[in-house]
Structure formats: C-alpha cells, structure tokens
Amino acid sequence: MAPNPDRTEQGNAGETQQRGGETLTTNHGIPFSDNQNSLRAGHRGPTLLEDFLLREKIFHFDHERIPERIVHARGSAAHGHFECTDPIPELTRASLFAKKGKKTPVFVRFSTVAGGAGSVDTPRDVRGFAVKFYTDDGNWDLVGNNIPVFFIQDAIKFPDLVHSVKMEADRGYPQAASAHDTFWDFVSLMPESLHTVIWAMSDRAIPRSYRMMQGFGVHSFKLVNDQGETRFVKFHWRPRLGMQSLVWDESAKMQGADNDYHRRDLYEAIAAGDHPEWDLGLQIFDQELADSLPWDVLDATKIIPEEIVPLRMVGRLVLDRNPDNFFAETEQVAFLPSNIVPGIEFSDDPLLQGRLFSYLDTQKSRLGTTNFHQIPVNAPKCPFANMMRDGMMQTQVPKGRANYEPNSLDQAGEDPGPRASAEGFATAPQEVSGPKLRIRAESFGDHYSQPRLFWRSQTANEQAHIASAFVFELSKVGLGHVRSRVVSHLRNIDEDLAKRVAAGLAIELPEAAKPFRDPIDIAPSDALSIQKNWQPTLKGRKVGILFAEGSDKAELDALVAAVEKAGGTPFTIAPKVGGIALAGGEAKADGQLAGSPSVLFDAVALVLTEEAAQKLARDGAAVGFVMDAFAHLKAIGHTPGAQPLLDRAGIEPDEGVTDLSALPQAAARRYWDREPKVRDLA
Predict the structure, then answer these.
(1) Which residue out of 12, 37, 139, 145 is catalytically annotated?
(2) CA dihedral 320, 242, 279, 210 (to 10 degrees)
(3) N or C: lower Cβ tally within 10 Å for the chain?
(4) pLDDT tens, position by position, 474-519
(5) pTM: predicted TM-score of the whole model, two decimal places
(6) CA of 482: how far to CAs of 7, 164, 261, 485, in Å?
C-alpha cells in the first residue's frame, strides 16, 4: 500500500495518533485506522467482542513466550486465608463478605513485572499482587499491583507498553530495567503513562519486602447486592507491618548481595511463624460521586484520594503456609481477572475489558491445555461441573452421554448433567447505548493532575528520590529528543521537578508540552507517602550483629534478646562462622562477614573490642558493612570499643548512631535527615 504523509495528531482524549509511513495492518493485511483505542459501545461503554484488531494483537502478544510468563515471570507465593472482619451483605452478595469470622482459603503470588524468571528480586519495578480466593461460589482472582494505577488507559496498548519496557529487540538487554531508550520514548509519547511513571520513580518501586508492600485492584469494579443494586468499588491491601522501602543505592547493591532477597524474606518469615498480614480496605462509591469527580473512574491511570472516599476495612489476609513445590504451585498458578463470583462485577474500564480476554488466552499458551483449571492450585475448592469434557491432558473421567444441553436424557433414566441455576451468576442490568466507536472518551484526557497530586503529597526527601530516579533513568537514554520530551511533560506536573531533572541531566529546560486538558490542583493526600505513614516498629525487620574474637558474650546475648523482645530478627555475623572464643564463652555466627553485607539488614550492631575493631578497620568487607549501613540511613548500634571501625568508615555521629541499649528503638526507623550528608540528590 502507498504510504501516507507523516504526521502526528491528538486523538479525542489527547492520545498520540501517528499517521504516515508504511500502513499498519493485521497479520492478514487488513489496515488499522486506529491503533490506540479498542472498539466499544459508545464513548464510555464496554469493549466489544467483535474487535478483531484488539483480539489479534493481544492473542499474538499472549503467545510470544513459551512457557514463561511474558510479564510477572519472576514470582513468589504462599497459601493462606482471608477472614471477613466487617460483613457487607447490604453491599454485595459475595459469600466471602457475608459473615463476620468467615474464612476463605487463598493463594497469593507476588512478582516483578519487567524481568524474566531468572532475573533478580529488587530492581526498580512495579510489583504484582495477585490473590486467588477459593470461595463457596467458585474462584475469585483479584489480580493487581503494588501501585494503584497503570501506565495505559486502553488494553490495546498493552503489547506496545511491554515491548517498550522489555529488553530492546535488537540487542536483548537491559534485563529487568526501564532505564533505556525504548521505554522512555514510549512514555514521552504517551502522557497518560506519567502518573504510573512518577509512582515507579518513587520508593514504591523498591519495596523492602513483599510483607511491607501495599496492594491494589487498580480498576474500578462493582459490588452487587441481592436486590441487584450496584456500587463502584476499589480494592486496597494494607500491610499490618506498615510500608517500608529500600533506598536506590541499597536496592542496586542488593541485586549482587542476594538475587532472591524478597523470595527468601517471604519464605523465611512464614517458616518462622511470622505470618504476613494485610487488611482489605474498600473504597465504595456511587454513580453520583463518580459523576462529581473531575476525572473518569473508568480510567485506570487515576486514583480516588482517600480524603474523598475513605477506606472501609472489611477483612484480613494471612499467609501462613509456604508452597510444597515451587513449580507445581507458584509457577503453574493461573490468575484470571475474568474469574469473579456472584456479587462482584466488572466496570466498563477499557483496560480491564481487554484483560478479561488476554489472561485466559495466555494461560492456555503457558500451561498447554484448556484444562489448566484442573491443576490443584487452580482448581476451585467448591463443587464444579459443566459440559466441557475433552481437551489435552484431561485428568477427570466424565461418565455418561450428557455433554450438551438442553437434553432429556433424564427421561431415559440417564444422568442429564448439570443445569443452570437461578441463584447463579447474573450480570446486573446496565443500559448500553450509543454507536460503535473506536474512540477514547474526552473524560480520559487529563494526564497531569494526578501525577501532580502524587508529587505534592510526598515529603521533601521522597521528592528528592523521585527527581533523582528520573535523572538516573533518563541518563541511560541515548536519544536526546526523548530526554527533552519527557522533561517537557514534567513541567506540566511541577516546574521544580522539571528544573531539577533538567539540571541533573545538564540539558536546557524545554518548553512545556501542550496538555490536551489543563491540569488542576488536587489537595495533597498523606496516604500517598511512605515516609508519612512509616510504622516505627522492629517487628518483621532484621538486625545484623557483627562480633569477633574477644567480644563480650553477655553483651552479645543481651542484644540478641533485646532485638527479639522488640519483635525483630537478630542475625549474628563474624569473620568466621565456626565457634569463636569470646569473653565469657564461645559463639557461632549465623553468617560470615563477606557473605552478609549490611544491605541484607534493616539495622546493624557492632559488638567489638577495640583490638578487634582496629583489625577489622583493615578489612574492606567490615568497612563496607558499616559505610553502607550509614549510607542507607540505618541505625548503627555499637560498643565503645568499635570506635576505630566507625572512624575508618567515616561515620559522623547522629541520632541513628547509638549505644547497644538504644539500638532496638533506634532500629525501628530510618534516618532520612542523614541523606544529604551521604549522597547528592536531584
């Protein structure tokens, strides 16, 4: 086909529409008129099954990897239960919310998004938070992330997003990293992605532990009660240990110290009986409130601040059993956003609508058979029966002839098979009208107000982390025009942010990008900040305790006991792991110094004599142990004899550098005020 003249246009909601060049077609040669929007019933209606362009694009994308997941390939999981603490039968007929104290088995998988199965646990990335509820009425899969928004507004863009963030197609790197040309080129042309990007540049993208990470259902869903009345709902998981993150330098060093840091942390906590827990909070709102907001609740790039719709806590999630076999369970578990139960329904969110098709298709590709639901980790724990009998790897042995309905085989004394029930799933009535349109509603067109909200809700220290993350990521981008275009978008979020990033990159401040819809100011929300919500507790945290020959055994034992009493986990470290002679006895270390760097711990202690400290001051591993702990803003407890090692590491006294008696309390937090002394931030 003859190429059209090159041109770039804005679509109906400000999305980038590119024309010109070789004509874009399906695999069968049918030309696309719009590669940005799926086909829906009306401007804000549901996506139509007849959209063969969407289905072919997603179908091809779903089958690009065998058998590894294309995204969320590296995961960790656990069994547990969900307990209803505040029943809401007036809002939903879903059985798991019907009665206080009702427990529902669950299987939960956490994951990184961009890296392959062999990548590392701690890169800067969005984290998956997927929960499979084995309810009385079948499986409900709440498949979300640790960030409440997503990069795109329409599922037809998902293959483009993932292709851009994955390894560059011609060179196969970088792995598990967004700091490269193609991702930021995509971002710079898709301003709708900026809200998720600013979350990803924050400390939310480098969590300390899965156990200290929030989770979100991302989309607006619906609750339906027995009377067929509907309300919108957003799902939030809140960790009972509170949120905690790493700092960027710590995260990068962690990748060398322990590739499996998050996986090991989750497994060991459950094995030790320190069962991770989350509260489930719901944001419940009606159509009237949805209509009053200056953004669209069907837009997956937007949140509703908790100051507008507070959370109602309805249940508790507890993970109390590790998988028996990683492959059989963690690897073979299949989550489907299309798995919902009576009382929960989909909204017309165009990103969610595309996911309903994509995940089912993907699981067939990964697991090799349409019968993947028979794998134990995927099978419902309630009775299930239907007429679908054959297919590869059928493990059940259905009897009789009833593999169709309607049938009258019961009149001949045969089993007629299952029948539909009036009590089963029935979609709540909803008016759907309007023309078939491949278009995006103008109400999706504000791409800057919510990133501005997130930025202004952070502490000054968190803002410095975000600006520095933009500088780091864009410094890896070789295309100068892409760097400038990203900064031009940042000017619409916050002028100071844009200036700091431009200065960090040593580039001229570009003109601000022209917004499709002018941003508005939204009142800051403290709920969006990690540091404002930090829980000062040692529970769930780990303290590395360095000792050596001649250390006082009584001091060592007392510190171990004090950390345990405060709810923390002590981990002893020495130059050698065998029995070491101490003043007052002997002790064996849990780990050897060179293999136990301080990045693995939330705080450290030095139980040393002056002679041992002078010797360790000549050991690079010991000096690095202390320097990194200080640089990563952690508490450092020490005996007076440890001073030579502190001096060699250049430690300046502050409130986080304490004696041993004060360490358990000091270790409950990090010392953000220290950061300007140890690194330059944008």
Answers:
(1) 145
(2) -50
(3) N
(4) 999 999 999 999 999 999 999 999 999 999 999 999 999 999 999 9
(5) 0.92
(6) 18, 13, 34, 5
